[in-house]
């Protein structure tokens, strides 16, 4: 259970403003969707929330303590970060890669315990990658790779999960699975920030949305508060098609996993 707070995050790269005084708060049990057009600064913000090195100013507090002051290993136990770009070529067996997710819980050179192996099995089941166990990671499809990396992130049993477009490469059923998994993580006391482009998924699953554009927060609140006609037009340059009166009716998730 943790509270993550970002205050006054500002990032300039080569004289260009990437993020401008962005604030973000993630409470216990909260699933926060970070949305916004390409280049809005979503990935940059998520990396900063994860405490990755960079030149950002502002502060990140984890339960009131500066993230920078928390030891790397402890941070890794509490915050898991799933990057957008998974094109890293790991010639590693999938199960070895997921096992790496347990490192923050192991002492140097310590072999995984029975409990560690149990966690690894559970997260591989949850992300539906058990059948890929013996595959070499860099031969996986984009969607399979993302699910394996999600399993690795969950293997750390973090309280906070930061996931950058985790469903972008997934088929519809796996998109629902992964969103349900994030929801479950938050229902059981964890919390998550998830970057999404799919407004229907964002609206259906997220408790709150924060919309970035041009490195600033343009709107934040419940999905209905954020996804207004005015904002969709201003930020994305899209309007409702004839026949739809308001975004609430237009932005719906038309399917669910079938049972039986
Ligand atoms: P998003 O994830 O919302 O699409 P990003 O955070 O990846 O946006 O990028 C925000 C902006 O910062 C983009 O215009 C991108 O081109 C720019 N940017 C990101 N990293 C760098 C970098 N290392 N050098 C120059 N520009 C960058
Ligand atoms: Mg991005």
Describe the structure.
Helix content is 34%, strand content 23%. With 260 residues, it is α/β, with parallel strands linked by helices. It has one domain (4-250): Rossmann fold. The strands form 2 sheets. The protein has a 6-stranded mixed beta sheet, with helices on both faces. It has a 4-stranded antiparallel beta sheet with strand order 2-1-4-5, covered by helices on one side. α6 (172-187) links the parallel β7 and β8 (191-195). The protein is globular and about 55 Å long. The two termini are 35 Å apart. Bound molecules: adenosine-5'-diphosphate and magnesium ion.
| Share of residues in helices | 25-40%
pLDDT under 50 segments (min length 5)? none
User: What is the CATH homologous superfamily assignment?
Assistant: P-loop containing nucleotide triphosphate hydrolases
Strand order of the largest sheet: 6-7-8-3-9-10
Radius of gyration: 19 Å
Strand content: 15-25%
> Could you say what the CATH topology is called?
Rossmann fold
CATH class: Alpha Beta
Provide mean pLDDT, rounded: 94
CATH architecture field: 3-Layer(aba) Sandwich
Tertiary shape? globular
Query: By helix and strand content, what is the structural category?
Result: alpha/beta
């Amino acid at each position: 259970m943790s509270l993550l707070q970002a205050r006054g995050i500002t990032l300039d790269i080569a004289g260009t403003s990437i993020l401008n005084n962005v604030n973000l708060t993630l409470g216990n049990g909260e699933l926060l969707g970070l949305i916004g057009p390409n280049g809005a600064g979503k990935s940059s913000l998520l990396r900063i929330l994860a405490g990755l090195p960079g030149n950002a100013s502002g502060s990140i507090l984890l339960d009131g303590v500066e993230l920078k002051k928390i030891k790397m290993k402890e941070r890794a136990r509490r915050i898991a970060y799933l990057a957008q770009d998974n094109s890293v070529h790991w010639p590693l067996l999938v199960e070895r890669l997921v096992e790496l997710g347990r490192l923050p819980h192991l002492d140097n050179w310590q072999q995984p315990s029975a409990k560690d192996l149990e966690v690894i099995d559970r997260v591989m089941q949850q992300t539906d990658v058990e059948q890929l166990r013996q595959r070499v990671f860099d031969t996986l499809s984009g969607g399979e790779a993302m699910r394996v990396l999600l399993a690795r992130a969950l293997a750390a049993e973090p309280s906070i999960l930061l996931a950058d477009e985790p469903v972008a490469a997934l088929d519809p059923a796996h998109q629902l699975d992964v969103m349900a998994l994030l929801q479950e993580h938050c229902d059981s006391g964890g919390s998550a920030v998830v970057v999404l482009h799919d407004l229907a998924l964002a609206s259906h699953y997220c408790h709150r949305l924060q919309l970035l554009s041009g490195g600033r927060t343009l709107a934040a609140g419940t999905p209905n508060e954020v996804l207004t006609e005015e904002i969709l037009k201003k930020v994305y340059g899209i309007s409702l098609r004839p026949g739809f009166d308001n975004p609430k009716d237009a932005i719906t998730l038309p399917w669910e996993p079938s049972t039986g």
